[in-house]
Write a structure and sequence with these properties.
The chain is α/β, with parallel strands linked by helices. It has 2 domains: 216 residues, Alpha-Beta Barrel (TIM Barrel), CATH 3.20.20; 111 residues, Elongation Factor Tu (Ef-tu), domain 3. The protein contains 10 helices and 16 strands. Strands 1, 10, 11, 12, 13, 14, 15 and 16 form an 8-stranded mixed sheet that branches. The protein has an 8-stranded parallel sheet with strand order 8-7-6-5-4-3-2-9. The longest helix is centred in the middle third of the chain and has 18 residues. Bound molecules: pyridoxal-5'-phosphate. The site of pyridoxal-5'-phosphate has 13 residues, from strand 9 and helix 9. GO terms for molecular function: alanine racemase activity; pyridoxal phosphate binding. InterPro entries: Ala_racemase, Ala_racemase_N, PLP-binding_barrel.
């Protein structure tokens, strides 16, 4: 048995996907399952497929290669870079877009190479201030897109809670579908892909606040952690502990909480602060900043306190724990988005699937 590892409980994760799909299905919304958190782990995409997912989204093109044999619609979530356009049109059925220059270049590429028009979803920035065009500029941009022969505008998308940590409001969603209606009326076309947000927008669905025009949600977080950023409560029927991390104790010691000697900077260029609480029992684990984000790791033994660490070590205050840790013992952590990302991305972390 090798440590550290991230353990994926398949039964619980499959359950969460199905609950999300059920919540959405009642409102005729399709779940576009987001795979980017799994950093190209094929088994994770297979679990989505097993649960019945037909639409997949990722921000990195390499990850689509990993599960190219899984049937379904593949959507690029990070707006394309000019340099990756040939791969985008080859590997993806559609992409989210926010820059007219890029959209024009995609169109030119498709025409030049006699490819069928690439399907694009135009992102509208409703306040979170990441990608997308502003509502009052949308019609002008759509005017230009409509003239392009190498792209097909299939819908609009919006996003909340990422950069600006904004929460979707009823008026923002109304503005969003108003734009859809304006476009459909002006150009006499149907926008069939109305992508109404990420996990943070799921609560609008069960609160009956999601406009009926919305037929897609791009979702990762809510299914992974069984909760969402709006309320941070467990979504009824979901599990919060589908994923956990286990690391191994490699030293148990009793040392002063305050380092000794003249203070300088740590291995990462920071000047850390230490509380002098006298001598404490500490444990050192075989996992480091290369593998995870310490501030997104929650020991299941709640009497343990993470002190910090370095590239390869995690140091914990075990003074208050009822468990008498020994070298070789295993410490289990609940996770959050950042630690999940790092753990899946670290080749030094074993990925273990349990039923
Ligand atoms: C990552 C991402 C999502 C998924 O967000 P979750 O919070 O995991 O549901 C949706 N849309 C875009 C554009 C993304 O980049």
């Amino acid at each position: 048995m090798k440590y550290p590892k991230i353990i994926i409980n398949e039964t619980k994760f499959l359950n969460n996907i199905k609950v999300a799909m059920q919540i959405c299905k009642e409102k005729k919304i399709e779940v576009l399952a987001v795979t980017k958190g799994f950093c190209g782990n094929k088994k994770m995409a297979e679990l989505y497929a097993k649960a019945g997912i037909k639409y997949f989204g990722d921000s990195r093109l390499e990850n689509f290669d990993v599960y190219s044999d899984i049937k379904g619609h593949k959507q690029l979530l990070r707006i394309p870079s000019l340099s990756e356009i040939p791969d985008v049109v080859k590997k993806c059925d559609s992409s989210l877009n926010g820059d007219i220059q890029t959209i024009k270049t995609i169109s030119e590429y498709c025409i030049l190479n006699k490819l069928k028009p690439h399907k694009i979803v135009l992102m509208i920035d409703l306040g979170d201030r990441r990608e997308g065009v502003l509502p009052n500029e949308t019609m002008k941009v759509v005017d230009e897109i409509i003239k392009l022969k190498g792209v097909e505008l299939i819908g609009l998308g919006c996003n909340f809670g990422c950069y600006g940590a904004r929460i979707p409001s009823d008026w923002a969603m109304k503005e969003f579908v108003d734009l859809q209606h304006n476009i459909e009326n002006k150009y006499n076309l149907k926008l069939t892909h109305m992508s109404g947000g990420n996990s943070l927008s799921l609560h609008l669905v069960w609160e009956n606040r999601m406009p009926k025009e919305i037929n897609f949600l791009r979702m990762g977080f809510a299914m992974i952690f069984g909760t969402e950023d709006m309320y941070r409560k467990t979504i009824p029927g979901m599990y919060r502990d589908c994923f956990r991390c286990e690391a191994e104790v490699i030293e148990v010691d009793y040392k002063s909480s305050m380092p000794v000697g003249e203070a300088g900077i740590d291995a990462f260029g920071h000047k850390p602060h230490f509380d002098d609480i006298g001598d404490i029992k500490r444990i050192i684990l075989n996992i480091g900043k290369l593998d995870t984000a310490f501030d997104a790791m929650y020991p299941r033994d709640q009497d343990l306190k993470i002190l910090g660490g370095s590239t390869d070590h995690l140091i914990i205050n075990a003074n208050d724990s009822k468990i008498n840790y020994k070298v070789g013992d295993i410490v289990t952590f609940d996770l959050d988005w950042t630690s999940l990302l790092y753990l899946f991305n670290s080749k030094y972390v074993e990925k273990v699937f349990e039923k």
